[in-house]
Amino acid sequence: MSKGRGRSNPRPAKHVSGFVSILGRPNAGKSTLLNALVGTKVAIVADKPQTTRTTIQGVWTSPAAQVVFVDTPGIHDAGTIFNRRMMQSINEALSERDLLLYLIDSTRAPGAEDEKALELIKGAHTPAIAVFNKVDALENPAALLPLIDRYRQWHEFDEFLPLSALKGVGLEELRAAILKRLPAGPAWFPADHVTDQPERFLAAEIIREKILASTRAEVPHSVAVLVDEWKEEGRLTRVSATVHVERPGQKAIIVGARGAMLKQIGSEARLEIERLLGRKLFLALFVKVSPKWRENERFLKELDWRAMTGGDAPQAPQPDDNEEE
Ligand SMILES: Nc1nc2c(ncn2[C@@H]2O[C@H](COP(=O)(O)OP(=O)(O)OP(=O)(O)O)[C@@H](O)[C@H]2O)c(=O)[nH]1
Ligand SMILES: [Mg+2]
């Protein structure tokens, strides 16, 4: 992400701008909040931990302000090389920020892991707001008070705000708290710029979201999606993508009986990508077993969209190992 801020330039006194990172444990609702704050879906969401695997930028622009929100993977113990990369991207999202939003799932009892995750926030020495998400799902709203107290003891947050990212409750209070803390500065992006992700990465993410919604247990963690081909043909966009899994059993699950599951995933993804592009789409979906891709540096480089932009398409999978939609 380019950060050519040009803060020394003269500018209208009241316009504010800044970089705000959204952090928290897996599944806290960070991506849901990013989408709500930006007003457009820029990050995929699932009821499984570790949905977000890289930092994702979402830009909100008004006449008086521009805020660049940065969504991050959930803070967790890194086992594989892939997980270490996720944690690395979290660390990058902590430096040179104007403000941090630390998102907490209010429906979960806090534990040692939550206290440990805060070490990252403490180490950043950046103002942080504690956001208590999912208040719509609290059986007993009074349970929020001891939870807030617990976090107050753990870290000196600037503010403690209850919120429902899903229902949009408390969103404007949060926005006001953010804007209050941003420095005067120019808009760095045009008003219609909402994210830094290229279309082919967004398309791969949408496909992965549809897979996450229909699979369970270890399958979601084992899935990676790569767009192999992207062609504009008149009014049609032709996209070919491969779903990589780690084991043959997982391929069988995703393909489903007589290919029914893959067909459903493909058609759900196609509809959403068509909405995103505003164009007709032909989507060819393949499934390939790529054992231990999470430990494969070369594959992880292909997966990183920052390596995709402008670069060659990742190597196409071997046809004999494929299932077509
Ligand atoms: N009830 C309720 N559910 C929510 C709220 N916000 C998010 N969720 C749900 O929580 C789950 C996780 O949401 P995500 O936005 O993917 O969470 P995340 O923190 O980005 O997760 P990772 O990317 O895996 O770290 C999804 O099922 C969301 O629908 C909320 O305010 N209320
Ligand atoms: Mg997420």
Secondary structure elements and pairings:
Blueprint: E1 16-24, H1 30-38, E2 56-62, E3 65-71, H2 81-92, E4 99-105, H3 112-124, E5 128-133, H4 144-154, E6 159-162, H5 171-180, H6 199-214, H7 219-222, E7 224-233, E8 236-245, H8 248-255, H9 260-277, E9 280-289, H10 297-303, H11 305-308
Parallel strand pairs: 1-3, 1-4, 4-5, 5-6, 8-9
Antiparallel strand pairs: 2-3, 7-8
Helix pairs in contact: 6-9
Guanosine-5'-triphosphate is lined by residues 24, 26-32, 45-47, 49-52, 73-74, 133-134, 136-137, 164-166.
Would you write up a description of this structure?
The protein has 325 residues and is α/β, with parallel strands linked by helices. It folds into 2 domains: 16-180, P-loop containing nucleotide triphosphate hydrolases (Rossmann fold, 3-Layer(aba) Sandwich), CATH 3.40.50; 199-321, 2-Layer Sandwich (GMP Synthetase, Chain A, domain 3), CATH 3.30.300.20. It is built from 11 helices and 9 strands. It has helices spanning 30-38, 81-92, 112-124, 144-154, 171-180, 199-214, 219-222, 248-255, 260-277, 297-303, 305-308, and strands at 16-24, 56-62, 65-71, 99-105, 128-133, 159-162, 224-233, 236-245, 280-289. It has a 6-stranded mixed sheet with strand order 2-3-1-4-5-6, with helices on both faces. Strands 7-8-9 form a 3-stranded mixed sheet. A hairpin with a 2-residue loop joins strand 7 and strand 8. Helix 6 runs antiparallel to helix 9. Magnesium ion (MG) binds at residues 30-31, 43, 51-52, 71.
